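Project outcomes to date are best conveyed with an example. Our students and postdoctoral researchers have been running inverse folding experiments weekly, and each run begins with a structure described purely in tokens. The record below, which covers 73 residues, was selected by the lab manager from last quarter's runs and is presented without edits.
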């Protein structure tokens, strides 16, 4: 699995997940339950992971929808 995005914005996580599901790309949100450790203040970023084989397509989907993707991850 490769990291596609990392963000503190829960709406971006939901939007990215919906975009990827619409393109039939499986994704896995990580660090969702870290709020227990941080006290629900949203300091720790959440990540969206995709399979290695889907990374190129997933990045293209996000770029096509105006979401900046770091190529280094």
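After processing, the design step wrote out the following sequence:
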């Amino acid at each position: 699995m490769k990291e596609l995005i990392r963000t503190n914005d829960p709406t971006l996580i939901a939007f990215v997940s919906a975009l990827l599901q619409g393109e039939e790309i499986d994704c896995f949100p990580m660090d969702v339950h870290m709020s227990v450790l941080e006290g629900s203040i949203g300091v720790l970023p959440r990540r969206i992971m995709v399979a290695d084989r889907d990374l190129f397509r997933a990045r293209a989907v996000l770029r096509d929808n105006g979401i900046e993707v770091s190529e280094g991850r």
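The domain at 2-64 is CATH 3.30.70.790 (Alpha-Beta Plaits). The first strand starts at residue 2 and ends at 7. The training component of this project remains on track.
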